[in-house]
Each structure stands twice: as C-alpha cells, then as structure tokens.
Specification:
This protein is of the alpha+beta class and 182 residues long. Helices cover 45% and strands 18% of the residues. Helix 3 packs across helix 4 (125-141) and helix 3 crosses helix 5.
C-alpha cells in the first residue's frame, strides 16, 4: 500500500455524509449513530485520504448479516480484523477510500478512544499541526511501507490518545461533532 498524506480536503466531510447515508439505509434500526473520525474529520490536518467512520450499533453480532448488502455499496467485511468486539469494513481494497470501525453501543472504551482523539485535535491546533507534520514526514520516509509509517507514529498517537481521553473527562464533553445520529 502506498502511503500518501495530503493537505486537508474540504470534500472529505461530503464523502463522509454520502456514505453515512448509504450505511444508514442498510443498517436502519441496528444503527445508533455514525461518526466521522480520524484525521479526515479534523479541519486543516494533513491526512491519508481515507474517510474513517465509526458506526455505533445496537448488537455487534448482528452486523455480519449485513456483509452482502455492505458489499453492494463497495465495502468488504473483514470481521473483527484483530480487535475483539469490532467489525471492520473497507472500501477500495488496497487503495482504500473509506474504512468503518463498528462497535456495539456499550463498548465505551473503544468508542471513546475513536472519538476523543479527533475532538482533541480539533480543539488543540498545536497538537494537530505537529501530528500532520509527523505524518507528512513519515509518508516521505516510508512511501511504500505502511507498517513503517504506522510504527513511526505509534508513540505520538498513544500520547495524544492519553491526553485526549483525560481532556475529554476533565471537560465532560459530548461527541456530536461530525456525527450523523439516528
């Protein structure tokens, strides 16, 4: 997989909204809410041009029944894909355009982790800028090595995640930014 990091694209939110509607139409009453997460959800943040989405569902075990319908709109279901309690879908194969990280509504730890980081980066321009610069540097250093790229940002991401969760708790934040509720 080629590692490409670009400047923020205002079209990313539109791409999220379009696929969120398709997913909502498939999952219907199983869907609690869907959030735009990851770097593409943070204005002015450099990112790989892949729309990360967090559908929160009522019962994660029911999601496997939707694999065929999800495939009809271009999403490949990969099951838990290494994380217990998650259902992972990707669109575009090795040249991903979208990825879904689905969790059951009561999996608060994973949902919080996915929502806290972009919220923190939206509120802390200095951290967002540093993260964007790191990602751009790593993309240049590892243009054909996604593992090297991911390993290179791992410590930074874990530090931001720790700060983001503490920040969220200290501010008692509600996550309605960039989400499409039911």
């Amino acid at each position: 997989m080629n590692v490409i990091v670009t400047n923020h694209n205002e079209n990313w939110n539109k791409l999220f909204q379009e696929d969120a509607k398709l997913i909502r139409d498939i999952l219907k009453d199983e869907l609690v809410e869907i959030h735009h997460i990851g770097s593409t959800s943070v204005p002015n943040l450099k990112a790989k041009p892949i729309i990360d989405m967090l559908p929160v569902v009522k019962n994660i075990k029911n999601i496997d029944m939707y694999n065929e319908k999800m495939a009809e709109i271009g999403y490949e279901g990969l099951g838990e894909f290494g994380l217990t309690g998650r259902r992972y879908f990707r669109k575009g194969g090795d040249n991903r355009t979208h990825q879904l990280h689905m969790y059951q509504f009561d999996n608060e730890t994973e949902i919080e982790r996915h929502l806290a980081v972009p919220a923190y980066l939206r509120a802390h321009d200095d951290a967002a800028k540093a993260y964007g610069e790191l990602k751009a540097k790593l993309a240049e250093q590892f243009p054909n090595d996604i593992t090297g790229y991911m390993d290179g940002k791992d410590a930074f991401v874990k530090d931001i995640e720790r700060k983001a969760i503490a920040w969220r708790k200290s501010n008692n934040l509600n996550y309605s930014i960039n989400s499409v509720g039911r």
